[in-house]
Amino acid sequence: MSAGRAARPGSDGEHRVQEELGTIARADRFYDEQVLDRLNPRMQEFVARQEMFFLSTADRNGECDSTFRAGPTGFLQVLNEKTLAYPEYRGNGVMASLGNIRENPHVGILMIDFFRDRIGLHVNGHARLVSDDVMRAIHPHLPVDPVPGRRPQVWVEVGVEEAYIHCSKHIPRLAKAPIRTGAAGEGVGEGDGEQAWGTDDVKRKGGDYFGAAAQARAGERPVIGRAQRADDPPASEGLDGAVRTIRRVRALQTGDGDIWRREAERALAEARAATEASADGERHDFRGWFT
């Protein structure tokens, strides 16, 4: 990698993949035209009207977590062109995102407008936890929300390092549905009524929608965490495999019949090998993907 490219935005890893896949010119144009180190006025206006965003964090070992945050319009505060802040409301008590931030301050925020402009905004930066009292002493203009479930337990302050567009090409257009009224105890999809901010009612929070609690009660304990196994391939091998796959697809698109035949035979051999030894140790004949 050239010294000039090393000074570009982004990671060394993404620069290497750009070289391997021949996207350097496109990437450099995007860096030059779209990636800022601050929020410009239009970005600030966009942030101020959001009601939700997606948050990515990782612990000190790089184990990732993604989550969703929502609140009334303006809950994600623009403090200045280099700083955002949002309140952490009452949740399940696990504190996965906050715990990760304590170990590793790097965060990624993705905001998507599904309803009006059908566009997105990425913000990457460093985060720190700030108590509600301290945050309000420094920023007395912050609103006080009267809803009990929306009273901050703590604030997350994010120093902006990168801000850039997420293009509209694959963003679906959605429409907001009117809030349905229903009994206070009704569950998801049964007339949710007003947003159940701060509730501890299991049914109103979604109950055991995915059946995890039922599995635990049946003795099928969910797997908590994942240790690296000795036979796990390193991440670089997975990336190399992806690059090889892309190159094979490109070769197939050129109409090379010999390559197509070899790839089909390889896929069939892998499928057969996978079915020869099942979890119960018995051999099972391969019968095709569509039987």
Please, could you describe this protein's structure?
InterPro entries: Pyridox_Oxase_N (IPR011576), Split_barrel_FMN-bd (IPR012349). The protein has 291 residues and is an alpha+beta fold. The chain has 9 helices and 7 strands, in the order ααααββββαββαβααα. Strand 3 and strand 4 form a beta hairpin. It folds into 3 domains: 36-166, Pnp Oxidase, Chain A, CATH 2.30.110; 183-217, no CATH class; 235-276. The chain has helices spanning 3-6, 12-21, 24-34, 41-48, 96-103, 132-138, 212-217, 235-253, 257-276, and strands spanning 52-58, 64-70, 77-80, 83-88, 106-113, 119-130, 154-166.
Topology:
Layout: H1 3-6, H2 12-21, H3 24-34, H4 41-48, E1 52-58, E2 64-70, E3 77-80, E4 83-88, H5 96-103, E5 106-113, E6 119-130, H6 132-138, E7 154-166, H7 212-217, H8 235-253, H9 257-276
Distance between the termini: 48 Å
Strand order of the largest sheet: 2-1-5-6-7-4-3
Average of the residue pLDDT scores: 81
The CATH superfamily title of the largest domain? Electron Transport, Fmn-binding Protein, Chain A
List segments where confidence is low: pLDDT < 50 over at least 5 consecutive residues: 183-192, 286-291
CATH top level of the largest domain? Mainly Beta
Q: What is the count of structural domains?
A: 3
How much helix is in the residues? Answer: 25-40%
Strand content: 15-25%
Order of helices and strands: HHHHEEEEHEEHEHHH
The count of β-strands is: 7
Largest sheet: 7 strands, antiparallel
Name the overall outline.
globular
The number of helices is 9
Structural class: alpha+beta
What is the name of the CATH architecture of the largest domain? Roll
**What's the alpha carbon Rg, rounded to whole Å?**
24 Å
**What is the third-level CATH name, the topology of the largest domain?**
Pnp Oxidase, Chain A
InterPro entries: Pyridox_Oxase_N, Split_barrel_FMN-bd
Domain Pyridoxamine 5'-phosphate oxidase N-terminal: 40-134
Pfam family, one: PNPOx_N
Protein name: Pyridoxamine 5'-phosphate oxidase family protein
